[in-house]
Specification:
There is one protein chain. Strand 8, helix 7 and strand 9 form a beta-alpha-beta unit. The protein starts with a strand and ends with a helix. The protein is elongated and about 65 Å long. Helices cover about 50% and strands about 15% of the residues. The chain contains 13 helices and 9 strands. About 50% of the residues are buried. The protein folds into 2 domains: about 160 residues, 3-Layer(aba) Sandwich (Rossmann fold); about 120 residues, N-(1-d-carboxylethyl)-l-norvaline Dehydrogenase, domain 2, CATH 1.10.1040.10. Helix 8 packs across helix 12. The structure holds nicotinamide-adenine-dinucleotide. The site of nicotinamide-adenine-dinucleotide has 27 residues, from helix 4, strand 7, helix 6 and helix 11.
């Protein structure tokens, strides 16, 4: 049993912390939103007055925050309060540069750290089946692995500091681009008088096969559980897809990588968000491509 501080108890953090409690760990929690603290308390988390107070009690600290600026400001406030040798795990999705900066803050205070963003969404957070993509030194990863297990379906050590975030944004850039490709194919099929089912039956067993088609099919019918069958209720919200595509573009610019389709996908998701699609599933981009309202 490990004592764990959990900072950031929102849509993802609360169910993740609940799974740590269920696994028998002692979890000290903090968030800025009182309703989120009340949910955490109901799940067996011990609520603390602020982040440094939560960290003082902990051998391991997990953060699940909106963006890089939140992670850096929380790290600056908690690193001095943590005992040397504490392990920090940041599971937020943030830019690679901030992730590396967060590792540096931890190292300055004698703290081990990994970046460990996730995929799997709120469903995976509740079910304890998230995929963790971890970046950091081997000894930090070895300590993190048993802590992550109750929240995880899969844990992959991707390399040094920042590699987890790099893997996350590269994967989601593929996802954003492939969803637009699949959606465009269905829009073209509609104009050509080809049924959704016929296109699905061919493409799902041909070279067009991909996750955006076979798991998150953007039209209702062929994949009964895809968000298209429930009026594009997320799932994975288009606002979060836009966030990840912007992070990929920032990283591409900083690293000098040529990613024209990633840039185009970011533009299209920005327009879809501006037209009110941000709260709907990212597969709803098909409505934008057809010219329908979000
Ligand atoms: P959320 O907004 O529901 O939760 C973030 C929480 O952080 C909020 O409760 C907020 O009050 C808290 N917070 C902000 N600043 C704080 C501070 N200084 N101290 C303490 N708490 C603070 O967001 P979420 O959906 O839980 O996402 C969290 C992270 O996970 C994001 O980086 C997101 O991109 C990533 N993510 C989300 C999903 C998803 O499906 N929701 C999937 C994969 C990854």
């Amino acid at each position: 049993m490990t004592s764990i501080a959990f900072i950031g108890l929102g849509n993802m953090g609360n169910p993740m912390a609940a799974n740590l409690v269920k696994a028998g760990h002692t979890v000290f929690g903090f968030d800025l939103v009182p309703e989120n603290l009340a949910t955490a308390r109901d799940n067996g988390v011990t609520i603390m007055a602020n982040a440094p107070a939560a960290v003082k009690e902990a051998e391991v600290v997990v953060t699940m925050l909106p963006a890089g600026k939140h992670v850096l400001s929380v790290y600056e406030s908690i690193a001095p309060a943590a005992a040397k040798g504490t392990l920090f795990i940041d599971s937020s999705t943030i830019d690679v540069a901030s992730a590396r900066h967060a590792h540096a803050i931890a190292a300055r205070h004698g703290i081990l750290s990994i970046d460990a963003p996730v995929s799997g969404g709120t469903g995976g957070a509740s079910a304890g089946t998230l995929t963790f993509m971890a970046g950091g030194a081997a000894d930090a990863f070895a300590r993190a692995e048993p802590v992550l297990k109750p929240m995880a379906g899969r844990i992959v050590h991707c390399g040094d500091a920042g590699s987890g975030q790099a893997a996350k944004i590269c994967n989601n850039m593929i996802l954003g681009i492939s969803m637009i490709g699949v959606a465009e194919a269905f829009v073209l099929a509609e104009k050509l008088g080809l049924s959704h089912q016929a296109l699905f039956d061919v493409a799902s067993t041909s070279s067009g096969q991909c996750w955006s088609l076979t798991t998150y099919c953007p039209v209702p019918g062929p994949v009964p559980n895809s968000p298209a069958n429930r009026d594009y209720k997320p799932g994975f919200a288009a606002a979060l897809m836009l966030k990840d595509l912007k992070l990929a573009q920032e990283a591409a610019t900083a690293a000098g990588a040529v990613t024209p389709l990633g840039a185009e996908a970011a533009q299209l998701y920005a327009l879809f968000n501006a037209q009110g699609g941000g709260d709907t599933d990212f597969s709803g981009i098909i409505r934008f491509l057809r010219g329908d309202a979000a």
